[in-house]
Amino acid sequence: MPTPDFDLLMMRRALDLARLGTGHARPNPIVGCVITYDGRIIGEGWHQQYGGPHAEVNAVAAVAEPELLPRSRVYVTLEPCSHFGKTPPCADLLIEKGVAEVVVCNLDPNPLVAGRGIAKLREAGIQVEIGVLEEEGRWLNRRFFTFQEQKRPYVVLKWAETADGYLAGPYFQPVAISGALAQVMVHQWRTEEQAILVGTRTALHDNPRLNAREWPGQDPIRLVIDKNLCLPPTHHLLDGSQPTVVYTYRERTNMPNLDFMTLSEADDLFPQILHNLYERNVQSVLVEGGPTVFNSLLKDGLWDEARVIRSPKQLKGGVTAPHQGLTGLHEQFRVGEDEVFVYHRL
């Protein structure tokens, strides 16, 4: 029987493997799997691409001696699925291979699974242990758990501010605040979230592309709030180069890669947007501006994580950075000359 320390070591390895699927498996959760026999790893894998084989399938395929599977112990970061989706149920695969034991980090909150995978395994006579490194697993798949349990995407706020607390120059004049290394990091963040949101002023004054030019990975879905459709058609956000949703109070016909979503003026703006994103199966959104958007989300508690890049530069005037409602400093680190503060909503 493996020791508790061995179980922790193998589950940490499975969590490390799961991280490799960040930005690729969405909207599915990221999952890792390790298969052991007699104290050694005989196979491992992770969910590499949405629509592709799941972690358990890849791990089983990596086993060079399949005759060992009936005596193996399988570590998986999320409950094996029990339903047919784009791939067959992983619980059925483990039963078919006759594995002896399965150790699970987290139960799957998806109503299509929700304990059914565990029940299938146990009914087949497989010994199942649940909850090894449970908190670490929930944090790793925080986007997925938020989406399933709160029926909205995981919301990450991101802004760069000067040492004296400004987001932009007077009258929203764009100013390069963060350094080159921090800008690359932001493009990496963009590949890790499914969508990216800006408000009207940011779209008008910055004319952003909102893609990931400086980091390999998938571009996020672009979201822009343009209540009165005042963005000029020459702006990048309306160029149709990547999927874009415009949230507005006006009616307008959709175009290729450009969806105009008409919202109700009678209801609060951001709950409507988050509900629409839930209906679109968007599990996470990176919010990049501007101050009106940030302040509204902070005030209403509609955020999960905030990443503030603080530059040593000073403006001595301009648009003030938001901080009201910002709590729960989780970590702090330096990137080049900039300092990064990461907050988690408590």
Describe this structure in words.
It catalyses: 2,5-diamino-6-hydroxy-4-(5-phosphoribosylamino)-pyrimidine + H2O + H(+) = 5-amino-6-(5-phospho-D-ribosylamino)uracil + NH4(+); 5-amino-6-(5-phospho-D-ribitylamino)uracil + NADP(+) = 5-amino-6-(5-phospho-D-ribosylamino)uracil + NADPH + H(+). One of its GO terms (biological process) is riboflavin biosynthetic process. Substrate binds at residues 190, 206, 210, 213, 288. Converts 2,5-diamino-6-(ribosylamino)-4(3h)-pyrimidinone 5'-phosphate into 5-amino-6-(ribosylamino)-2,4(1h,3h)-pyrimidinedione 5'-phosphate. This protein is α/β, with parallel strands linked by helices and 346 residues long. It has 2 domains: 4-146, Cytidine Deaminase, domain 2; 151-344, 3-Layer(aba) Sandwich (Dihydrofolate Reductase, subunit A). It has helices at residues 4-19, 55-61, 90-97, 116-123, 134-140, 142-150, 180-192, 200-206, 269-279, 291-300, and strands spanning 32-37, 40-46, 73-78, 101-106, 127-130, 154-161, 166-168, 195-198, 221-225, 244-248, 258-262, 284-287, 305-310, 319-320, 329-335, 338-344. Helix 3 packs parallel to helix 4 (116-123). The two termini are 39 Å apart.
